[in-house]
Amino acid sequence: MRIDLHSHSSVSDGTDRPAAVIEHAVAAGLDVLALTDHDTVAGHAEAAASLPRGFTLVPGMELSCAHEGASVHLLAYLFDPAHPELAAELERVRRDRVVRAEGMVGRLRAEGVAVTWERVRAIAGDVDGGDVVGRPHIARAIVEAGAAEDVPDAFDRWIGSGGPAYVARYALDPVRAVRLVRTAGGVCVLAHPARGEGALTGAVPDELVERMAAAGLGGIEADHPAHDEAERGRWRGRAADLGLVVTGSSDDHGELTGRRLGCSTTDPEAYARLVAPATGASPIAG
């Protein structure tokens, strides 16, 4: 069984519709896929409606968190999206994403970059009310405007942490986020812990991981395309030390990442252990 627990669709910052993500996952030889768009579950219905027989969808999302001013990402699975406190936090996060994106567009224009808010919104799209505007959408608009060679260059030049058009936004404390997802019946995995920003200098601090584990963190995404072998080994060791599951995932964003679904996968026994405590939702079988 081939299991990929981290993917994105056009509901957030991927390039493919949720149904197309499922299609690509099947073509990649996967049996189980988690759809984990940023701070939204809006793509789950379309993805579930397109499942072929024998294929399983794990409803999830990638939750925006922050620690000491730097980004920490939490993969949440099988939670109840209608849980009042979680739903309220997600609405606040999505609302502030729009405020932040508008601020970035304003700063870009002040720097002479011909990016418009209308174009950024058009790139982001709008699927089932789950429109999530993210920096990758702004980056694509920057490339279109000729102010960067590609999306990574747009981040490096303009909208990465510390860049001239960077704007901070609201995000949850990671420990509180773990508790919140667990209260909503879900399970959590720390996403790509060796790939951080700003004050984290590329890695989530051990002390924070320990506090997240004590709060109910279920796993660590050690096997990620952005991690080299040394980083994968280090985070596998941390997971073992803390009694956490090790997951592997593609973090696929469609064209932006070269459609790499299945390039890293999760062991079936680890997957079974991870999802066992979930009570907020169930995997959806085609």
From TrEMBL:
<dbReference type="Pfam" id="PF02811">
    <property type="entry name" value="PHP"/>
</dbReference>
<feature type="domain" description="Polymerase/histidinol phosphatase N-terminal">
    <location>
        <begin position="3"/>
        <end position="67"/>
    </location>
</feature>
<dbReference type="InterPro" id="IPR052018">
    <property type="entry name" value="PHP_domain"/>
</dbReference>
<dbReference type="InterPro" id="IPR016195">
    <property type="entry name" value="Pol/histidinol_Pase-like"/>
</dbReference>
<dbReference type="InterPro" id="IPR004013">
    <property type="entry name" value="PHP_dom"/>
</dbReference>
<dbReference type="GO" id="GO:0004534">
    <property type="term" value="F:5'-3' RNA exonuclease activity"/>
</dbReference>
<dbReference type="GO" id="GO:0035312">
    <property type="term" value="F:5'-3' DNA exonuclease activity"/>
</dbReference>
<protein>
    <recommendedName>
        <fullName>Polymerase/histidinol phosphatase N-terminal domain-containing protein</fullName>
    </recommendedName>
</protein>
<dbReference type="InterPro" id="IPR003141">
    <property type="entry name" value="Pol/His_phosphatase_N"/>
</dbReference>
